[in-house]
């Protein structure tokens, strides 16, 4: 097996140097063999022997990698760090540090650094407004009634003066929410996790309790409280539409989406909040404030107003005041960037007795393939990307998805609302994968990354564990328990088997949507 691994030495140019990746990916025989071997290999790549993989670094030298897929330098770096040991699904122990090195290697891989044409002006979601003259100040973008608790900020057009949330908004394009190597990400997530909460109000819409928090620099975050312990599994007698939303599912979904290379979920971090100081005392939402009470054991609880689980019996409680929650960066306000909500063609019936059309009609997908917007462009494969994410994390609650109106049909899908994922680890839900089984269509770049994640040196559970260890709540308890991480590998194997099965029944071109073909055009023949 020839691997596509290209490792960067610290003195090498950064991976964003377009030309060498381009050459590595599309030009050399070596890498093109790598790509096709990944794309066409049988599903069970996890069985392959990964020792003595040859990998060509950016300078064109051949490096021999160890069985862990690490360069000598990376191994040395990981050996110098203190070792914390975790148990994998096979009972073997593996240091978390090796997962961290795997994550670095994964994100440096050419499949995550594919060259793209420069983004055209109209393909950015927002543009900075030209400076307003003093006489026109009243027509500023927004004005708040009360500035109490907020910073007196004077932003100019230089992006360095922009707060991280604004830089995030300005980085949204037609193709993704944020770039792969995003220097702003660290500040953005740090601020979500630590900045003072100036106000907290209930978020209208949706069925379960959630709040919108504001920060001194006018940033906003969507807050979902902890409702279930990490090692608890959703009750088997509960229907998917009655399940709780989990804060750790929102966090883990963000990490998984990023690891899959999609970047279609707004950044989410975990945070422990003081329900009195950071919610009750700062809220101007009287309906919310009225629902606070002290439980018989002295914990401070609240339940808010919503159509599901907003009652004394389902209150969320601090211990005695500390409450774990997820905070997601808010997308630009709808007045600046309208979104369109699309009903999923594979939506469940949300009824205990009715079946949906896709569950009974054998030829359902061929109808969808002819129906706009699935009949043109990338919408069908975009939807398959979402289906794969949902199957991996076992989210049955994808009734709708959203897009930014500005970009029409030719844009990525927002993967919002992931709170009902990661409810059960001991059971997979094959019906979530029905669209892929029925349509047999997948993006080539997605398939390649999935195959990569099934290889031992990038194993999905290891890179997820490593990625989640960066979240502030990891110090309280790992965001996903080991059985949930193991389930990811098992489900990934099922996805790859499904695609393999498709390829046995249909021609390769029918199954694979080749979104990497443009790379060949970008390189002029030598
Ligand atoms: N990060 C975000 N920024 C802005 N808006 C968001 C964000 N996340 C979600 N929303 C919006 O808020 C709505 C409600 O959020 P969410 O879907 O997570 O809650 P819910 O209670 O599960 O809703 P539902 O019951 O409809 O599934 C979403 O449909 C979406 O339009
Ligand atoms: Mn929901």
TrEMBL record:
GO MF annotation terms: ATP binding; metal ion binding; protein serine/threonine kinase activity
Stretch list, region Disordered: 38-58
Domain named FAM20 C-terminal: residues: 292-512
GO CC annotations, alphabetized: Golgi apparatus
Polar residues bias (residue ranges): 38-54
Active-site residues annotated for this sequence: 397
Subcellular location: Golgi apparatus
Transmembrane segments: none
Pfam families on file: Fam20C
Record: residues binding Mn(2+): 245, 417
Binding site for ATP: 208, 224, 245, 328-331, 402, 417
Major place of residence: Golgi
Keyword Lyase: no
Cofactor(s) for this UniProt protein: Mn(2+)
One of the GO biological process terms: enamel mineralization
Source superkingdom: Eukaryota
Keywords: ATP-binding, Disulfide bond, Glycoprotein, Golgi apparatus, Kinase, Manganese, Metal-binding, Nucleotide-binding, Serine/threonine-protein kinase, Signal, Transferase
Family label: Belongs to the FAM20 family.
Full protein name: Extracellular serine/threonine protein kinase FAM20C-like
